[in-house]
Structure formats: structure tokens, C-alpha cells
Amino acid sequence: MKELFQHAAVTDGIIVRVAVNFLPEQSRVEAGKWFWVYHIRIENEGPQAVQLVTRHWRITDGRGLVSFVDGEGVVGEQPMLKPGDSHDYVSGCPLATPHGSMEGHYTMRRADGALVEVAIPFFPLAAPATAG
To answer: Could you tell me if residue 1 is inside a domain?
Structure first.
């Protein structure tokens, strides 16, 4: 199955693409829990290697409640991307509302030691109307 990346952001030659899908089988609408899965591809089109060091997410639910998630790496990894390399991972996000959004940034370390804040594009989380 070829995934359609609906959202993308470019920072200094590093492209972050996002595909997001609502998962009704993981959601408990009657209990006020909705769940999405997102697939991220990070592509290094820059001239030097970069390593993903940390992540910072801003998650907003349908009531405007904002939560932040900060941590090392992504899904337990701190991938090194040489020029031309890409890294894919999949994660999920539960919300207490049928709509919300996510956005954020990765901190990457270049081969020369410089740190770069790489944008993760804003993307909406929206359950189908029939799901809630």
C-alpha cells in the first residue's frame, strides 16, 4: 500500500512528510476516546549528515486544550541520516475529542555539530462524522 503524505515542511534541506489516519478500531467513541496513527518520513536532501536528537510536539484537542510531548529521538531511535537518506516511523495519538491537531519540531545535529530545529508540519486530526 502506497501511503499518501498529506503534509510536508522543509527546513534547511530536511523534509518532514506526514500521513495521518483515524483508527476506528483503536478508538472508543462511546468512552470519549479517539485514536489516530501518523506515518512520518524524514528526508535529508541537505549537504551533510544529520542525527535526530529530540522531538517536541504540540497537540491540541477540539476544546483547545494544548499538551506538549518532549523526548529523545522518535520511537526509541535517534536515526542518523546521510545526504539522500530517509527515515520512516509510525506512531499514534489519542484524544478526548473527535478533532484536534499536531505540530512540532525535531532538533537535529549536523555533522559539523550545529543544532538545527526542523519543522514538523501542522496536521489536523479529524474523525469522520460517522465516528462520533
So the answer is: no
> Distance between CA 20 and CA 9 in Å, rounded?
15
Domain-located, residue 2: no
Cell of 110: 549536523
How many residues appear in the chain? 132
CATH number at residue 115: 2.60.40.1470
What is the chain's pLDDT, residue by residue, as a tens digit (132 residues)? Answer: 456 899 999 999 999 999 999 999 999 999 999 999 999 999 999 999 999 999 999 999 999 999 999 999 999 999 999 999 999 999 999 999 999 999 999 999 999 999 999 999 999 999 987 544
Instruction: Tell me the whole-structure pTM to 2 decimals.
Output: 0.93
Residue 117 belongs to domain spanning: 7-131
